[in-house]
Design brief:
Length: about 300
């Protein structure tokens, strides 16, 4: 499952580049699902705490979302009215959620990921004028997605149904998936990308670098998946445990790996898993694969 290689730009039509961005978004979701061992999440070892999910379901879900990401990219290429584009993305995002639920038999495999990757795909497409995917800086891409996320979604002006995420945000007075995007994905910018790149630089394998990036996200994220299932005590356990793994040298060090497995046991006991952090890791891999400021030499 290798990263769809970026074609020589002169051969790309706008249609091709929208498809290529969508392929990269799907690739990022697949890489996140396959990455192992992720504490208490679905991975190649098993289901973690998710009795209703398994690896093949995550991969099927990623595949069914690809055409929606392509439509989001195409919408961004063809619209010069930001308000119209935001409305269109909301529509496509909800269609993508419906397709996901139809594919998985009603299981929420990727709701948060559709939101983050949808916005990032659209922002990347805005940088692909005339069909050329311009290699941009990650800050620019994250800020572009944030600008879109801050625009009003007309479908939500009059009614917004309560979600697990919004209920957790209110109950614990924290910000959730919506604010994470509106603020320019601070956990991607400040924790995940720097950790991914510093791990690579010190010679960690790509798998270890990605696991360390996931843990870096966990150290600061107010993950509403964890809050909904295990409350503030569960979130503290996650954040402290992730900090501990990184302080012990990360997942590539023996002490760090032991701490990671210990964290997993704690999360399993709490029935908690960091789905929001997993979504942001997929978004991180997508941004990293597109941006000129990466330093990766990927082993696939
Ligand atoms: C914004 C969304 C994610 C709503 O999120 P909300 O916080 O209300 O909670 P909900 O329980 O529906 O989903 C939250 C999901 O986000 C992820 N998540 C949890 N915590 C966080 C966090 N702090 N940061 C980022 N992601 C998180 C998890 O995967 C979780 O399952 C989304 O459902 C939405 O509004 N979709 C509409 C479609 C749309 O506008 N799309 C446009 C761009 S594609
Ligand atoms: N590898 C993964 N394993 C599990 N969840 C993941 C993974 N990658 C991303 N996620 C995210 O985690 C979320 C699922 O978490 P969770 O099961 O707590 O949510 P829910 O369906 O809203 O709640 P519940 O299962 O309690 O009804 C999905 O929206 C998905 O985006």
């Amino acid at each position: 499952m290798s990263l769809p290689s970026l074609q020589p730009v002169s051969r790309l039509t706008p249609h091709d580049s929208a498809r290529q961005l969508a392929a990269s978004a799907r690739w990022a979701l697949e890489q996140e699902a396959l990455l192992s061992p992720k504490p208490a999440l679905v991975d190649q070892r098993g289901q973690g705490v998710h009795s209703d999910m398994h690896l093949q379901l995550m991969l099927d879900s990623a595949r069914c979302l690809e055409p929606y990401f392509a439509q989001m990219a195409a919408a961004a290429q063809h619209s010069d009215n930001p308000l119209y584009l935001r409305a269109r993305l909301g529509l496509l995002g909800r269609e993508a959620e419906a397709a996901m639920l139809a594919t998985t038999g009603g299981v929420n495999t990727h709701r948060g990921a559709i939101w983050a990757l949808g916005l990032l795909t659209a922002a990347a497409a805005q940088h692909s004028a005339d069909g050329l995917i311009t290699r941009t800086h990650s800050d620019q891409l994250l800020h572009g997605a944030a600008r879109l996320a801050r625009l009003p979604d007309p479908a939500l002006l009059h009614q917004r149904s309560a979600s697990k995420g919004s209920t957790a945000c209110q109950r614990y007075a924290v910000s959730g998936a919506r604010e994470q995007a509106q603020q320019g994905f601070p956990q991607i910018q400040q924790q995940a990308l720097p950790q991914l790149r510093s791990s690579r630089q010190r010679g960690d394998s790509e798998t270890i670098a990605r696991l360390n990036a996931l843990l870096a996200i966990m150290t600061h994220l107010s993950d509403t998946c964890v809050l909904s299932r295990a409350g503030m005590a569960g979130l503290r356990t996650l954040q402290t445990g992730a900090q501990q793994v990184l302080a012990l040298g990360g997942c590539g060090a023996l002490a760090g790996r032991r701490a990671l497995l210990q964290l997993e046991q704690q999360l399993l006991a709490l029935n908690a898993s960091a789905g929001g952090a997993a979504d942001l890791l997929a978004a991180t891999l997508f941004v990293d694969s597109l941006c000129a400021d990466n330093n990766n030499d990927k082993e696939q």
